[in-house]
Write a structure and sequence with these properties.
Elements lengths: L12 E5 L10 H11 L3 E4 L6 H15 L4 E5 L2 H6 L4 E4 L6 H7 L4 E6 L2 H9 L4 E4 L16 H8 L6 E4 L7 H6 L4 E4 L1 H4 L4 H15 L10
Parallel strand pairs: 1-2, 1-8, 2-3, 3-4, 4-5, 5-6, 6-7, 7-8
Helix pairs in contact: 1-2, 1-9
Length: 222
């Protein structure tokens, strides 16, 4: 643990989840930089197949690329998040317990990925700083899995006070539904990584989210 203060999650949260395999000939660093210019304020590095050394190098580069313009979170790998001086760690449902991650890294944001009400409520009581809630809509990342839809967000919004971020099949066209259901933000992969102009795609998404934000529940704006 260090004396580095824990960052605050920017609200509303516009999160880009990385998948370098969707970048084609383009560099992930360049796409992330463009997306942040367009309005992305959180980057979750989700590259599960990379060995520790390569993942550390990638996270370190992205931390440098985004600077103070966005937060960088690392999927599951608490050790890499700490070593690369990222801002947080995003824990899947079967990963390290939330309270254990908090004890090891008080300076990091700790997010938890949840797909049902009971795990979401439990994660909130155990110290999670945010819940990544999915899947909202049919998604390329989870083909064949029935989406929970915004109704899951509505249920959780009435039970927990931590920020909820919707994920799964979210686009500029449906982002307002997610915010209206009680989310404090959205997380996307294809909507930005698959766009010809990542900066413009991020700007459109950010505009849709900010446009819906005044209608969000008051306790989610804190």
């Amino acid at each position: 643990m260090t004396d580095r203060p824990r960052p605050e999650l920017p609200l509303p949260c516009i999160m880009l989840v990385t998948d370098r395999r969707r970048c084609g000939e383009r560099r992930l660093d360049e796409i992330v930089g463009a997306a942040v210019e367009g309005g992305v304020n959180v980057v979750q590095v989700r590259e599960k197949d990379l060995p520790s050394g390569e993942l550390f190098d990638l996270v370190s580069r992205l931390v440098s690329v985004v600077g103070t313009r966005a937060l960088v979170m690392v999927n599951e790998r608490l050790d890499v998040a700490l070593a690369a001086r990222a801002d947080g760690v995003q824990l899947p449902g079967d990963a390290l317990p939330t309270e254990a991650a908090r004890a090891l890294a008080s300076e990091l944001l700790v997010g938890r990925s949840v797909h049902d009400v009971a795990p979401g409520a439990a994660a909130a009581t155990r110290g999670a700083d945010l819940l990544l809630v999915g899947t909202m809509f049919p998604s390329q990342s989870h083909p064949g899995i029935p989406p929970a839809g915004p109704s899951l967000l509505r249920k959780l919004a009435g039970m927990v006070s931590v920020p909820l971020v919707g994920i799964g099949g979210i686009t500029t066209a449906n982002a307002a539904q997610v915010i209206g259901a009680g989310a404090s933000g959205v997380a996307v992969i294809s909507e930005i990584l698959g766009a010809l102009d990542p900066r413009e795609a991020a700007a459109r998404l950010a505009s849709a989210v900010h446009g819906a934000w005044p209608t969000a529940p008051l306790h989610k704006r804190h």
